[in-house]
Amino acid sequence: MQAFPIEKFRNLQTPFYFYDIELLRKTLQVVVLEAAKYDYHIHYAVKANKNPRILSIIREMGLGADCVSGGEIETVLNEGFSAEKVVFAGVGKTDWEINLGLEKDIFCFNVESIPELVVINHLACAKNTIARVALRINPEIDSHTHHYITTGIKDNKFGINLDQLDRVLDMLSTLSSIQLVGIHFHIGSQIMDLTPFRLLCSQVNELQQKFIQRGIFLKHINFGGGLGIDYENPDENPIPSFREYFNVFRTHFFVLNNQQIHFELGRSIVGQCGNLISKVLYVKEGSVKRFVILDAGFTELIRPAFYESYHVIENLSLEEATDVYDVVGPICESSDCFAKQRVLKKTYRGDIIAIRSAGAYGEVMASQYNCRQLPKSHFSDC
Ligand code: LLP
Q1: What residues make up the catalytic site (predicted)?
Q2: Which of 161, 239, 268, 287 has the largest CB neighbor count within 10 A?
Q3: For the chain, which residues make up each domain, given as ranges?
Q4: What is the distance between the alpha carbons of residues 65 and 83, in angstroms, rounded to a whole number?
């Protein structure tokens, strides 16, 4: 079990995010080391966590950034990331966001449709510049993850469908302010079984042939993100196996001369270092259940309500006896529930609770529903 500074927690206003900076640094060291073996480029997926302290540590380790909005581009540039390492994805880029990307001369736009290509071409032409573009292709691969976070099947809104690729390539030759620099994929998130990544490699190998036949050399291949973390055993597996993950691409993807390989990792980098710390307001005896009511709700961590996702929940007290509880928040919605029928140490008002593995898609998805305040953040090293 992770050692939390419980005395310090008692003096802080809950709920808040607590980040284990040691673990973040270790995770970054591993990912950087493993990626360097094959000269892979990592763009951190900012959507997973945009906390300034977290971003600055990630930047110090030399990672680039994967952004999905003008706001994210501004955030990372203010944080000191270099524009040369910024990629910009998303199915719905607005004109101001595209203009921002052009003005800042970001590394490339990951483009998801023909109408988007036309608009980027038009805006780049107006600025008398050339937009570097990677085509996001929907590879039609099921990543077997939660249906809300699978992105690479025909049914999803993401990417250019395979049967439209020829049309897009025909069209590209007519767009004079676009430079095609590569292709981009992202098949989903929280992927634990690496088989879909293997299938992705085979699919991209085949696709490369199509480009070769058309006389197009792709300098950059971006495989997106998606590597999962062990939500059930955060202490046994605090750092995902980046080695195995990269090895899939090294073994199954055939790199052509000088091609550069990119990844956009979010959850696997920041997921395990974050915890939501909350206080027990009440223990309520229902007629069929016992509820632990926390001062945190889905306004602080929406994943359980949104995806019914599992997070380890620990009562940090010294109590030895246990009991079974539904762990819920104070929000006026029945979905405001972190866990049902969970075994916890016997719980009392005032106990401090840690909800683990909340570093990715936690703080960043917090809302002010019910006029609540956004959670603060604290760090293990200060
Ligand atoms: N690249 C693209 C184009 C993406 O859409 C995403 C995540 C990533 C990279 C980073 O994926 P990661 O390495 O973090 O799996 N809120 C959900 C997850 C949504 C993921 C959205 N896209 C959750 O809490 O599980």
Answers
A1: 332
A2: 268
A3: 6-16+273-379, 21-270
A4: 9
